[in-house]
Amino acid sequence: MILLFIIFLFGISGWMFERKMNPELFRLGKRGLWDGVWGSAVTLTTVGYGDKAPVAKLGKATALILMFGGLLFISGLTASIASSLTLNQLTNNPDGFNEFKDRALGAIDKSGTENYLLKHFFKNIKTYSNVSLGLEELDKGEIEAFLYDDQF
């Protein structure tokens, strides 16, 4: 709905600025309004057919705002959808992070990782004095995962 609002707002604004200076492309009346909305949609979607181009200064300014604002809006919308889908995938995935709460895990003794695991109710944590020992235990199958964070 927001996208349609933007298309109509900038389409009508562009038409109002262009109809007198560019009447062959932005006609008068309802058809002219449609020309403005069409030009706005083509500009916003970056299709750029080239059939509608502003010539008035305010028409060009309106189109410029639409181009850059639309780019930011569409990329933000895409990022939001991708983030939501990723979060849903992680939350609904039976092999997700929480599945490891009952499994044997390894971490460095007194590390941020060990604190995190204890704080979030992970039950079977084995601690090691260094990474090599933890990885050896992982290789032997004594633990199912080894978690390590390197703090700077």
UniProtKB/TrEMBL annotation:
**UniProt KW RNA-binding keyword:** no
Signal is among the record's keywords: no
Question: Which domain of life does this protein belong to?
Answer: Bacteria
Q: Which residues cross the membrane?
A: 61-82
Key words of the record:
Membrane, Transmembrane, Transmembrane helix
Q: What is this protein called?
A: Ion channel
InterPro entries listed in its UniProt record: K_chnl_dom
Mind telling me which Pfam families this protein's record contains?
A: Ion_trans_2
Q: Which organism is it from?
A: Maribacter arcticus
User: Record's SUPFAM superfamilies?
Assistant: Voltage-gated potassium channels (SSF81324)
- The UniProt record lists the Potassium channel domain at 4-85
